[in-house]
Each structure stands twice: as structure tokens, then as C-alpha cells.
Amino acid sequence: SQFEMAMDSTLEELVQRLQRDLNCLLDEDRNLRKKGLTEIFKFLGTVQIESTQLAEFYQSYLLKNLKHTIEDKIEKHREISLQILEIILDKTRIIDQDVFQNTVRSLLGRVNNIPFQETSEEVRLQIVRLLQKIVNSYNQELRLLLPEIAFGISKLLLDQFPEIKKETASLIKQISSKFRSQFGVHVNPVVKSLLTNMQHQQNKVRKISIEALCELLLCEGAAPLIEQCFGSLGKSIHDKISDVRKTVFIGLANCLNGFSYANVKAEEGQVTYLLLHGLNDESEEVVNLVIQLLEDAGNKRKALSEEMQEEQTY
Questions:
Q1: What is the mean pLDDT of the chain?
Q2: Cα dihedral: 140, 143, 144, 148 (round 10)
Q3: Which of 84, 124, 194, 274 is deepest in the core (most CB within 10 A)?
């Protein structure tokens, strides 16, 4: 059968087998486009294809046609296009740097302006999840794209759909911890959008927005941005949900413990002032947490001062 033939199929055989379907992706006829997409999706999903052959097929043949169907006017076609891309991301590694950048940009292009080019919230959610996969699997290749990713994220956070706000905040946590020393300089617009979401009616959105913000502030160069956050953080420590309040206090303590000496000196007064509010919290659990956080931060700060003193005496 043709599926068995493809078990060890060369690139040439792969192209031969899917050429008609690839051509269909560019057809004026929507039914043919759908047929082409469905066939490619089924084939790539069920057939064992050697990883380097699959990467080569994607880089040289598939992406240039798939780029068009990612922008198709039919929502179902856009959805299948992204499912095909997901198979590629799961089964192989995109080696060609230009193709990799084009792939990420074709996703960002759908969501980096409001109103979004991508009109379906389900498809926008699919895009955020693909970006999470990409950040998870690629390192250096992403560095050049960080400014564009930050810009896209700042727009996605303003999506009306709470699920997208949450998944995008989760993506921020992921990028911030992976690109600690590169992401910080690009995050100004992201911080502004997170501050908006910290006032959202859903407490889960508020909570993960605070987590993402505090993770972001730990990136190199981002700490001074905390000054534009004190107003919102000051509201969040009085949130009606104790879990949200706990999240703020933990985040503030992480900033105290994670900032450089210079940033700690500049910001610790205001951060500690907010933390101290937790000692009057109505929840005993929150009070106990804050006592512990202040104690840990105090010990860490003492050690940091001593370390700095030693450095100055040398």
C-alpha cells in the first residue's frame, strides 16, 4: 500500500505522493483546498516519515503553500493548516533559519494587530499553543524574534477571550524563564497589557497575570519597570480572593530575592512596604505566608549586603 511505501520513502517519493495535494492548497476552489489540507494532515499524521526527510519536505515544499492556507478565508482551513504545522513541530526540527523565522512570523502575523487578522478565537488559541510548543523546543533560533514575539504577546493579552489571556500569560512565564538575559529589554508593551489583565473579573486571569508579571520583572533590564506596576500591585494585595493576594506577596518576595543589588537598593522600600501590608491580611494563612516571605527575604538581603561589603573591601 502507499502508506507502507512511505515508511522509508525518500523526499522525492514524498513530494510525488503529495504533489497534487500541495497544489490544491493554492487552488481557487475551496473544496479542493480543503481536500488537499485533509489529505496532507491524514498522511503526515499516520505515516512514519524519517525526521530529516520530513523537515526537508516542510522547508522546501510545504511551508510556501501552507502560508496561504494559514490565512485562508475559511476558518476550518486555517484550523487544519495549524494542525499540520503542529505535526511538523512534534515530529521534526526545522533547521533552516529563514524557514523557521517565516513559520513563527506567519503565526504572529495573525495576532499582532487589534482587531486581529485571525477572527476566530479558537484559532487564536491554537496559535498561542503552537507558540508555546515552539518556545519549548527552540533556543538560539528564537533570539532574533523576541522583539516581534513580545509585541504579538502584548496584543494577545488584550484578547477578550479569557482562555487566551491565561495561555498567553503562561507563554510569558515560559519565555521569561528561558530567555532571562535577552527578553527583558523588549517587554515594556507586555507589562502594560498584563497590568490591564490584573484587574480582570476572572480571578484565574488575575492570578496568572500577576505570576507572569513577576516572572517578567526578573528578566535582565526589566526590574525598573516595576515602578509603573506599584499602583496595580497595591490594588492586588487587597484582592477579594486570598489565593490572588498570596500570589502577589510571593511575586513581590521573588522580586526582592531575584533582583540585582542595584535594583534591590532602588526598589526594596516600595516592595517591602507592599509586603508589610500582608501582615494585616484577614486570612491567617496569608499572614503566616508573609511572615515567612519577609524572614527569607531579610536573610537573603543580609547575605547580599555582606557579599557587597566584601567585594568593596577587596
A1: 94
A2: 140
A3: 194
The answer to whether the peptide bond before residue 115 is cis (omega within 30 degrees of 0) is: yes
Identify residue 132 by its one-letter amino acid code. Answer: Q
Position 34, amino acid? K
Q: How far apart are CA 67 and CA 133, in angstroms?
A: 19
CA 23, distance to chain mean position in Å, is 33
Q: Could you give the residue ranges of the DSSP H alpha helices within 48-120?
A: 51-57, 63-69, 75-91, 97-108
- Distance between CA atoms of 2 and 123, rounded to whole angstroms? 32
**Closest residue by Cα to residue 101 from 160, 162, 145, 37:** 145
- C-alpha–C-alpha distance, residues 115 and 268, integer Å: 39
Please classify residue 251 by burial: count the beta carbons closer than 10 Å to its beta carbon, then call 0-12 exposed, 13-18 middle and 19+ buried.
Answer: buried
* Grid cell locating 33: 483546498
Amino acid at residue number 280: N
User: Which long-range contacts (C-beta less than 8 Å, at least 24 apart) are formed by 124-128?
Assistant: 124/156, 124/159, 124/161, 124/164, 125/161, 125/163, 125/164, 125/167, 126/79, 126/82, 126/83, 127/82, 128/156, 128/164, 128/167, 128/168, 128/171
| Residue in 249, 245, 235, 233 with CA at minimum distance from that of residue 290 | 249
Please write the tens of the pLDDT for every residue from 102-118: 999 999 999 999 999 99
